[in-house]
Design goal:
CATH topology: Alpha-Beta Plaits
Distance between the termini: 27 Å
CATH architecture: 2-Layer Sandwich
Number of helices: 3
Oligomer: single chain
Strand content: 35-45%
Number of domains: 1
Helix content: 25-40%
Number of strands: 4
Order of helices and strands: EHEEHEH
CATH class: Alpha Beta
């Protein structure tokens, strides 16, 4: 089953860069809403185990604009290999999903 809506997620190294990306995604109509959450990440990178504070970026969008969103994030992300994941929304409050639909009309 294909979902019409999804949450895309990525991480950035600080609040300023995350806020800039969030604003640009909403202005480009690639996202209806973007939430920023302070997190601590532990991960393997180039043979080492890293521990870093990051900002988790949760993007509410439609699957029909996900490919454009992914390309936009890749083009505007400072990491060599940015985390960009798509999580399908299988159910949601109808009026909220309509609002997401109305605010994600990008053709970047």
């Amino acid at each position: 089953m294909t979902s019409e809506y999804c949450i895309a997620m990525t991480t950035l190294e600080d609040e300023d860069s995350a806020s800039r990306l969030a604003r640009r995604l909403v202005e480009a109509k690639l996202a209806a809403c973007v939430q920023l959450v302070q997190i601590r990440s532990t991960f393997s990178w180039e043979g080492d185990v890293e521990d870093a504070r990051e900002v988790l970026v949760l993007v509410k969008t439609r699957t029909s604009v996900y490919d454009q969103l992914q390309q936009f994030v890749c083009d505007n992300h400072p990491y060599d290999v940015p985390e960009i994941l798509q999580i399908p929304v299988t159910a949601g409050y109808g009026p909220y999903l309509s609002w997401v639909n109305d605010n994600t009309t990008a053709t970047v």
